[in-house]
Design a protein that fits this description.
By secondary structure, this protein is of the alpha+beta class. The chain contains 5 helices and 6 strands. The protein has a 4-stranded mixed β-sheet with strand order 1-6-3-4, with helices on one face. A two-stranded antiparallel sheet has the order 2-5.
């Protein structure tokens, strides 16, 4: 009768609740089974013990090296050559043989004197020569002579070089005819003057002549000019201005 009085709707609710409880219990059991409890590991303290121990002493120094041994060079004995005593050998003197004396040549017969020759002359001489002369020489020359010497070529110098060696320099005198014809004029001439080694003027050549006065100027320069002795002949150009009042 009790089963008939119960409500079918409440029986459904009870069945569902029982099922839900069973499911939750299974889930919790599964979680407990599969999940392991996490344990926090704690670090254990490490005890450090410091032992103060003295360092071992250093090793002893190595022993010193043995002293170097001196090299001794072996002495070499010098063998002295043995001297043999030889018996003296008798040396025979060498007799020099005198060469055979040549036979004396016959003296040549004196040639007949040439016509026009002189006593003591030589063959090949010339007429007019002297005894003791040289064949091929010149009549009137000296023995050992080399003939006439070539004149030394004069050296050209500027006028101021020879001017310091002037001993005498007199102005040339012009003729009265020339003075009358050129009164009040100033003329100019250039002459080449050559001085010998003894200082005298030996040659005057007009380069720019003065007509009518060249002869008087050349004569006056040669006689009125004089220089100190020179080592070699010298020549120079001289400008002569002529003013006639």
């Amino acid at each position: 009768m009790f089963a008939q009085q119960t409500d079918p709707h409440s029986s459904r609710i009870l069945g569902f609740a029982a099922f839900s409880v069973a499911v939750h219990v299974g889930v919790v059991a599964a979680l407990v089974f599969f999940v392991k409890p996490m344990v926090l590991e704690t670090e254990e303290p490490i005890d450090v013990v410091l032992n103060l121990v003295k360092a071992p002493p250093p090793p002893p120094p190595p022993p010193p090296p043995p002293p170097a041994t001196r090299k001794t060079t072996p002495r070499t004995e010098v063998k002295k050559p043995k001297t043999e005593i030889r018996q003296p050998v008798e040396v025979k003197p060498v007799v020099e043989q005198k060469p055979a004396e040549p036979e004396p040549e016959p003296e040549p017969e004196p040639a007949a004197p040439e016509e026009g020759g002189v006593e003591g002359g030589v063959e090949g001489g010339v007429a007019g020569g002297v005894v003791g002369g040289v064949v091929g020489g010149v009549v009137g020359g000296t023995v050992g002579g080399t003939g006439p010497a070539e004149p030394v070529k004069p050296k050209n110098v500027p006028p101021f070089v020879i001017q310091r060696d002037v001993v005498r320099q007199t102005a040339p005198r012009l003729s009265e005819v020339f003075k009358q014809g050129h009164r009040g004029q100033t003329l100019q001439g250039i002459y080449k003057v050559c001085v010998a080694t003894n200082g005298s003027v030996y040659e005057v050549t007009p380069v720019k002549s003065v007509p009518g006065a060249d002869e008087d100027i050349i004569k006056g320069l040669k006689s009125g000019w004089e220089y100190k002795p020179q080592k070699v002949p010298v020549c120079f150009l001289y400008n002569i201005p002529i003013t006639i009042q």
